[in-house]
Every structure is written in C-alpha cells, then in structure tokens.
C-alpha cells in the first residue's frame, strides 16, 4: 500500500487545489497515467502517478486545497488487499456501501463548493480554472460553450468569445476589472517569489558568447527545402538539440541544488521558457531532448507549446527540467542575462539572429550570428566548466551534422 501525495510543481508552491479526479476507487492505474487536475498559481496541471496498482480510496476531495506532501489517495500494489479485507477467495462478498474516505491528518475540511458542471451528455465538463472563474464573473453558463482546448476543454478565450456572442451590443467586462487576486496576478506573484529566491540564494555567474550560425541555418534550409510547411523544422529545435548534447558533455549543469548538495538529473530534459498569451511564464520540460529525432523533437515542441497555452501541462513536465532555455530572439532581443529557476543550477539564453561582419578563412564576410549566454550556480560549477559548456554548444551549431549523426 502506498500513498499518492500532492507533488511540488514549482519552486515556491506550498499547496494546490484539487480541481478534478480522473480516477475512481477500485480502478487500475498505470505508471505515468494522468489521475488528477490540480490548480496552482501557474494554472491547471495534469498530475501523473508513478506507481502502478489499484485505487484503494481517494483521500482528498475535488475543490479541496491540499498542502504539498499531503495524501491525495491510497494505492494498492498488485495483489495487495485493503486493510481489514479477509473475504475467502472462492466466495464473493457483497459490496457494502462505502463510507466517506477518512481525511489525511492535518488537512482542513474542504471549502463548500457548487456541484461540478455537467454537460448535456452527462459527462463532467472540462474547463480550465481561469475559464471557470471568468464565466462566473460574466454570469455565463459554461455548459453551453464549445471548447477549443485539448480534449474539447473550455479555455479562457472560449468564454470571452461566448460572452461577446451572447451580448453583441455590449462588450464583455474587461479582464482588467477582475480582482487583483485573479489567476494572472497569482502567477505574477509566483514568478516574483521564485526569482526573488533565486537572486537571494543562488550565487550567479554569467558567461556569454557570440557565435556564427550560418552552418546551422544552411543545414536547416536544406532540410526544409523539399518539405511541406507543416513538416518543416524551426531553428529553436536545433538550439534545444545543441543544448541537450552540450549537457551530455557537461552534466554538472543538468540538475538541482537541494539540501546543500548538487543532485544530477537522470535524463536530459531541458525546460523551455514559454510566454503565455494572457501574461506570465512557464518552463515545462522537453523530455529526452538528447534522444529525439528531428521530426519527433519538432512535434514534441509544438505539442508542449500548445498545451502550455491551454492550461494542460503535466506534473512531470514541471518537475523534470534540470536546466531552462529561454529564447527571446523572435522579440528582437540581442542578448539575455537570465535568472536561474530554483532549484535548477543553470539557464541558457539565446538572442536574435543578426547579420554581422565575420572573419572566415582570412576574409571578412557577412554572416548570421547570435549571442548565447549562460547563467550558472557558483555553488556547483565555476567559469571554466561553464565555458566548456558554451564551447560544446557552439561546436554543435557550427557543425550541424553533429546534431543528428547518421
């Protein structure tokens, strides 16, 4: 018997609200299965379970705010029986009515809440917490709204569009009129708390390097030349691949600083900084970036971007990243001096591609270049190791055939 507990989904997360259970008592669960939706300051997260078994009981209730580390559910291992179960194997025992699940010690009673909305089909309505809150502010019944999110879930944009259709003569109330404790404000507070902790606790050092990316861009253009637009790669795929391979060579930058020591990550899962349309930022992990083929990495990145903006990230994507990559080049920024996301120990920043004079074979030529930067934790590494990482990164982008060797 094991206890499934509320995971920590952010550097300063203290608790999360259980929005929805996706499992029921008696059901079989598999490792990696999404079993619940939890709302945090950075939105709704699909939470996975990492032990196979069957659900003995659900401890936390939907709508309940649960501290990190507290019990959400009790899981029975294969062949294990619930406590007190002693029915003979050859004689079925009538199932008695299930008593209310006991609450984990220290948890306060759940707040009173309305019955969850149910669609006309009888299924539970899939709606993001931000969309649910906005619908309540507008007095709009979300059960009649068509969802454009993953799995038909209703997003904040869907609610805003429905409000305008419902009252064409009057614009929907401005989101700015919402209380300062709304989802966007909570996200900004979470980001500020994490960055304040980072600057307070982590002794940053910074390195930067301007590199020529003509070879990488030429490789990319040749790769995309005969492919449909929908199947083409984008340059950030090459950047993420180069970061992943550089981390293989310098694993000291891939992990977390916890309890006074460096804890290396088990795989290469760089976090990708994603700006959200309504404001705010998340940095979910792109899993196994050192092992994905080009098209698979492009598909994984596209999927990650879409789900981040639909409030459908998974818990493993918010806990696995051992380093974060931020790319502000498409916004015109030439260089980035990033702040490390604790407990990670490094952050890589990329600026925009610019055409500059470059010396090649003794000749000055025009070449496309960009600035790459590294912010790293002096408790774990020094400048020499950081410089080695940037050298590896540069070599892979200047010799793109090394990115996916045949």
UniProtKB/TrEMBL annotation:
Domain Peripheral subunit-binding (PSBD): 126-163
One Gene Ontology MF term: lipoic acid binding
InterPro entries named among the record's database cross-references: 2-oxoA_DH_lipoyl-BS, 2-oxoacid_DH_actylTfrase, 2-oxoacid_DH_E2_comp, Biotin_lipoyl, CAT-like_dom_sf, E3-bd_dom_sf, PSBD, Single_hybrid_motif
Keyword set includes Acyltransferase: yes
Biased composition range(s): Pro residues: 94-113
Domain Lipoyl-binding residues, every copy: 1-76
Keywords of the record: Acyltransferase, Lipoyl, Pyruvate, Transferase
GO CC, any one term: cytoplasm
Region annotation (Disordered) ranges: 81-126
Cofactor names: (R)-lipoate
EC number: 2.3.1.-
Protein's UniProt keywords contain Acyltransferase: yes
Assembly with partners or alone: Forms a 24-polypeptide structural core with octahedral symmetry.
Family: Belongs to the 2-oxoacid dehydrogenase family.
Annotated protein name in UniProt: Dihydrolipoamide acetyltransferase component of pyruvate dehydrogenase complex
Organism the protein comes from: Halomonas campaniensis
């Amino acid at each position: 018997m094991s206890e499934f507990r509320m995971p920590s989904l952010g550097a300063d997360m203290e608790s999360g609200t259980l929005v929805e259970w996706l499992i029921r008592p008696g059901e079989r669960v598999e490792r990696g299965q999404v079993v619940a939706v939890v709302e945090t300051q950075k939105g709704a997260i699909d939470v996975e379970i990492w032990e196979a078994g069957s659900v003995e009981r659900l401890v936390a209730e939907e709508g309940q705010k649960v501290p990190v580390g507290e019990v959400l559910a009790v899981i029975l291992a294969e062949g294990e029986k619930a406590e007190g179960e002693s029915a003979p194997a050859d004689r079925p025992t009538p199932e008695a009515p299930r008593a209310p699940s006991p609450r984990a010690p220290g948890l306060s009673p759940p707040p009173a809440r309305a019955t969850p909305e149910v669609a006309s089909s009888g299924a539970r309505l899939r709606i993001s917490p931000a969309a649910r809150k906005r619908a309540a502010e507008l007095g709009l019944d979300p059960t009649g709204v068509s969802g454009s999110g993953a799995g038909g879930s209703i997003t904040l944009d869907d609610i805003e569009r429905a409000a305008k259709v419902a009252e064409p003569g009057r614009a929907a109330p401005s989101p700015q009129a919402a209380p300062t404790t709304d989802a966007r404000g909570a996200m900004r507070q979470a980001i500020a708390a994490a960055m304040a902790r980072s600057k307070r606790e982590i002794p940053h050092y910074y390195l930067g390097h301007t590199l020529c990316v003509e070879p990488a861009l030429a490789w990319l253009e040749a790769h995309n030349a005969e492919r449909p637009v929908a199947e083409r790669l984008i340059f950030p795929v090459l950047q993420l691949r180069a970061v992943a391979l550089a981390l293989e060579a310098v694993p000291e930058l891939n992990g977390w600083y916890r309890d006074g020591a460096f804890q290396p990550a088990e795989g290469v899962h760089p976090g990708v900084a994603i700006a959200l349309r309504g404001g705010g930022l998340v940095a979910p992990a792109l899993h196994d970036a050192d092992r994905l083929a080009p098209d698979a990495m492009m598909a994984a990145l596209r999927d990650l971007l879409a789900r981040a903006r639909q409030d459908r990230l998974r818990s493993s994507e918010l806990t696995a990243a051992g380093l974060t990559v931020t790319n502000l080049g498409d916004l015109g920024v030439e260089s980035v001096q990033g702040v490390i996301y604790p407990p990670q120990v490094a952050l890589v920043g990329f600026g925009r591609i610019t055409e500059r004079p470059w010396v090649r074979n003794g000749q000055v030529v025009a070449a496309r270049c960009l600035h790459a930067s590294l912010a790293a934790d002096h408790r774990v590494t020094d400048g020499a190791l950081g410089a080695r990482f940037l050298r590896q990164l540069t070599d892979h982008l200047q010799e793109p055939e090394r990115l996916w060797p045949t």
